[in-house]
């Protein structure tokens, strides 16, 4: 109860103006996605209409068949490659970030603050843009140009992920719990596996979504290091643009198809992701 005799949760009731503003923001955010899927069901003549159409058409199947049959785009190959790359990078980043986060937050060792500071520096400097030339030379030396490992290897570790999980572990895992497990005879790896990982799951879900989305949408480095016949989905869409010029419907269809896996990931793990965001907000 509050001092005025009203329930505490009444303090958080949204007013009419707040609801209107949120509804307007939701509409602005969702409309481009909605319009993208609408145009994926239309023709190029519909795309040039003024005003544009806002209801679905009947050409989705035809547009999808055209998309998949475009030889220069290799769209199916791009989807499969993006799934492999994004999944591999996400698993690696989450695993390494949780291990490093646990070490920085709960273990005491010489140079830990210096190492964490160096990780923060990597977040401040655009290493990907500055290191493209030497990184490409390294891929040429290894003979990896045109292969998926050239896209996977540079992203297996993420400075932001390490910093995020360090902060999360410092709040989500009490020191007393770690000490109690150590007194009971648990090894450091056992403490990580049985004590730390269960507490970090919400944060891991959020980090996994962020890394998966970032890797799935990566364009510049795959464009440089991969061959046209072995693309990821974003470079496949770029090739689709070159192949069809002003075929707007084909571009909308390809973009809509590339967005669907992200929706699937969010639907499957949405509860854990939202729970992790809310738990992080409460701890903060």
UniProtKB/TrEMBL annotation:
PANTHER family from the UniProt entry: ABC TRANSPORTER PERMEASE PROTEIN MG189-RELATED, ABC TRANSPORTER PERMEASE PROTEIN MG189-RELATED-RELATED
Cellular component aspect of the GO annotation: plasma membrane
Coarse class of the protein's main subcellular location: membrane
Domain ABC transmembrane type-1: start-end pairs: 79-269
Pfam family, one: BPD_transp_1
Swiss-Prot/TrEMBL GO biological process terms: transmembrane transport
Family under the similarity heading: Belongs to the binding-protein-dependent transport system permease family.
Keyword Transmembrane helix: yes
Alphabetized UniProt keyword annotations: Cell membrane, Membrane, Transmembrane, Transmembrane helix, Transport
Name used for this protein in its record: Sugar ABC transporter permease
Membrane disposition: Multi-pass membrane protein
């Amino acid at each position: 109860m509050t001092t005025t005799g009203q329930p505490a949760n009444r303090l958080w009731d949204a007013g009419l103006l707040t609801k209107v503003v949120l509804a307007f923001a939701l509409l602005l955010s969702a409309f481009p996605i909605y319009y993208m899927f609408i145009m994926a069901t239309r023709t190029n003549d519909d795309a040039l209409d003024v005003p544009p159409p806002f209801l679905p058409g009947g050409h989705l199947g035809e547009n999808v068949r055209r998309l998949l049959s475009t030889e220069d785009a290799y769209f199916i190959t791009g989807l499969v490659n993006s799934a492999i790359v994004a999944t591999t990078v996400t698993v690696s980043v989450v695993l390494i970030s949780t291990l490093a986060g646990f070490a920085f937050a709960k273990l005491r060792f010489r140079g830990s603050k210096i190492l964490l500071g160096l990780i923060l520096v990597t977040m401040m400097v655009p290493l990907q843009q500055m290191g493209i030339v030497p990184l490409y030379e390294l891929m040429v030396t290894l003979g990896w140009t045109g292969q998926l490992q050239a896209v996977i290897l540079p992203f297996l570790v993420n400075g932001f992920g390490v910093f995020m999980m360090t902060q999360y572990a410092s709040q989500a895992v009490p020191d007393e719990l770690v000490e109690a497990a150590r007194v009971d005879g648990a090894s450091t790896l056992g403490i990580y596996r049985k004590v730390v990982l269960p507490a970090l799951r919400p944060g891991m879900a959020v980090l996994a979504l962020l890394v998966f989305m970032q890797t799935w949408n990566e364009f510049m480095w795959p464009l440089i290091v991969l061959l046209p016949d072995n693309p990821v989905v974003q470079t496949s869409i770029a090739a689709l643009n070159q192949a069809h010029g002003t075929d707007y419907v084909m571009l909308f269809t390809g973009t809509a198809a590339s967005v669907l896996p992200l929706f699937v990931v969010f639907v499957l793990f949405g509860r854990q992701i939202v729970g992790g965001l809310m738990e992080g907000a409460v701890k903060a």
